[in-house]
Each structure stands twice: as C-alpha cells, then as structure tokens.
Amino acid sequence: MPLGRKNYLFMLIGLGIIILGFILMSGGGSDDPNVFDYSMFSFRRITLAPVVVLAGFGFELFAIMKKFKE
Fold first, then answer.
1. Domain tally for the chain?
2. How far is CA 61 from the centre of its chain?
3. Could you count the other beta carbons within 10 Å of the beta carbon of residue 14?
4. DSSP state of 45
5. Which domain holds residue 38?
6. Residue 54 forms part of a structural domain
7. Which residues have a Cβ under 8 Å from the Cβ of 16 and sit 6 or more positions away?
8. pLDDT in tens for each of the 70 residues of the chain?
C-alpha cells in the first residue's frame, strides 16, 4: 500500500484545517443590497482564513509525501 494509515489520518486532519479556513472566510454579507457591510473586509476573512486554507493544503502535501515507519 503506497500510503499508510497515518498518512490517511493526517490527510483527514488537513481536510479539517481546510474546511476550518473556509468557515472562517464565510459571512460578512448584507441582506439589504442598499447597505454596505465593511465586516467582509475584516482581518479574519482577508488574512487569517486564506493563511489557514494554505496551511491546510501544505499539511495535505506533508501527509502525502511523508513516509512513516509502520
């Protein structure tokens, strides 16, 4: 088997990190089209969430490339 059990476990953790990043990115919209909501440009949505998503993809790459001693 090319990937071991730990690799798959780490891939699930990476997927969770990516999903967390997209959850952090969501929201900030307005129900009223005449009102502009500046909260969509918050630090959490513009900086933190994309960094978390990229970290999740980096963790996925690590999980695929790492060879564990089984």
1. 1
2. 13
3. 20
4. I
5. 5-65
6. yes
7. 56
8. 789 999 999 999 999 999 999 999 998 777 888 888 888 889 999 999 999 999 999 999 999 999 988 6
